[in-house]
Design a protein that fits this description.
83 residues, 42% helix, globular, mainly alpha
Length: 83
Protein backbone atom coordinates (compact mmCIF):
# COMPACT_ATOMS: atom_id res chain seq x y z
CA UNK A 1 0.00 0.00 0.00
CA UNK A 2 1.45 3.35 -1.08
CA UNK A 3 1.61 6.08 1.51
CA UNK A 4 -0.27 9.23 0.51
CA UNK A 5 1.64 12.44 1.06
CA UNK A 6 -0.38 15.60 1.38
CA UNK A 7 1.47 18.78 0.47
CA UNK A 8 0.40 22.10 1.84
CA UNK A 9 0.91 25.42 0.16
CA UNK A 10 2.53 27.74 2.68
CA UNK A 11 3.97 30.16 0.15
CA UNK A 12 1.75 32.99 1.36
CA UNK A 13 3.48 32.82 4.70
CA UNK A 14 6.81 33.51 3.02
CA UNK A 15 5.69 36.04 0.44
CA UNK A 16 6.96 39.45 1.38
CA UNK A 17 4.77 42.39 0.59
CA UNK A 18 6.36 45.78 0.36
CA UNK A 19 4.79 47.28 3.45
CA UNK A 20 7.33 50.05 3.85
CA UNK A 21 5.70 53.43 3.35
CA UNK A 22 7.14 56.42 1.60
CA UNK A 23 8.10 59.20 4.00
CA UNK A 24 9.34 62.73 3.47
CA UNK A 25 12.76 61.75 4.87
CA UNK A 26 13.51 59.17 2.16
CA UNK A 27 15.97 60.25 -0.49
CA UNK A 28 14.82 60.20 -4.10
CA UNK A 29 17.28 57.37 -4.72
CA UNK A 30 15.82 55.28 -1.87
CA UNK A 31 12.29 55.91 -3.11
CA UNK A 32 13.20 54.84 -6.64
CA UNK A 33 14.51 51.51 -5.30
CA UNK A 34 11.27 50.83 -3.42
CA UNK A 35 8.89 50.59 -6.37
CA UNK A 36 9.00 50.73 -10.16
CA UNK A 37 6.17 53.28 -10.28
CA UNK A 38 7.99 56.01 -8.35
CA UNK A 39 9.53 57.55 -11.45
CA UNK A 40 6.11 57.99 -13.07
CA UNK A 41 4.63 59.60 -9.95
CA UNK A 42 7.52 62.04 -9.55
CA UNK A 43 7.45 62.87 -13.26
CA UNK A 44 3.76 63.67 -12.85
CA UNK A 45 4.75 66.31 -10.32
CA UNK A 46 7.29 67.81 -12.74
CA UNK A 47 10.32 66.17 -11.15
CA UNK A 48 12.92 64.75 -13.50
CA UNK A 49 15.69 64.30 -10.93
CA UNK A 50 16.41 60.63 -11.53
CA UNK A 51 19.87 61.03 -13.02
CA UNK A 52 20.79 64.08 -10.99
CA UNK A 53 23.61 63.40 -8.50
CA UNK A 54 21.62 65.25 -5.84
CA UNK A 55 18.92 62.57 -5.95
CA UNK A 56 21.16 60.37 -3.84
CA UNK A 57 21.18 62.97 -1.06
CA UNK A 58 18.02 65.02 -1.54
CA UNK A 59 14.95 63.91 0.42
CA UNK A 60 11.47 63.77 -1.02
CA UNK A 61 10.57 66.73 1.18
CA UNK A 62 13.46 68.82 -0.13
CA UNK A 63 12.66 67.91 -3.73
CA UNK A 64 9.01 68.82 -3.21
CA UNK A 65 10.00 72.18 -1.75
CA UNK A 66 12.37 72.97 -4.62
CA UNK A 67 9.71 72.06 -7.20
CA UNK A 68 6.82 73.80 -5.43
CA UNK A 69 4.94 70.56 -4.75
CA UNK A 70 2.88 69.79 -1.64
CA UNK A 71 4.87 67.00 -0.01
CA UNK A 72 1.81 65.41 1.63
CA UNK A 73 0.01 65.10 -1.72
CA UNK A 74 3.11 63.60 -3.29
CA UNK A 75 3.45 61.09 -0.42
CA UNK A 76 -0.21 60.14 -0.76
CA UNK A 77 0.30 59.33 -4.44
CA UNK A 78 3.51 57.42 -3.74
CA UNK A 79 1.93 55.39 -0.95
CA UNK A 80 -0.90 54.39 -3.28
CA UNK A 81 1.76 52.34 -5.10
CA UNK A 82 2.30 50.05 -2.10
CA UNK A 83 -1.32 49.47 -1.12
Amino acid sequence: MAKEIKLTNNTKKYAKKNTKKFTKNLTIGEALKMHDGVEAVLTGFGMHCFTCPFSLMETLEQAAMVHGVEVELMLTKLNELVK
